[in-house]
Amino acid sequence: RQLQQRHIRIPIVFLTVNKDFDLAVEVMKLGIEDYLVKEEIATLVLPKTILNVIERQKLQEQLTALEISQKRLEAIQELVVQITGELRLPLDGMGTIVNELLTNHGADNLKTYLTIIRDNLQRIEKKIVRLKELKTDKTVQYIKDIRMFDLSDG
To answer: How many structural domains comprise the chain?
Structure first.
């Protein structure tokens, strides 16, 4: 009970000399991983029980980490849908204007800049597609403590 009150979560195997079913139920309700009586301690049951408890604890930690990762990814995907939706109209408008200017205005110095703008718009489009296809919340170091989503091919 004291461990629960202090929010300390460690696997515990309860050892007793009593074969008291009510006591077993009570300690299991408190979060005890397993319950053994004295006769079982001298056999192979104790080591197997300890190994099983440790394995269950590891599996529970992995499951919790996966659940957290899944929820985080779902939140990220929802945010991506909102942001890309807001970017769609301005990007489409810029693309239309740049293509029209490239087609109708022949000045070489203007074409150079318009081509750069068009190429960057295409790069942004590719990043948006990758963001929408995001399947993991993997990030990479960007600048100092800033991290960004890994949108690389690999």
So the answer is: 2
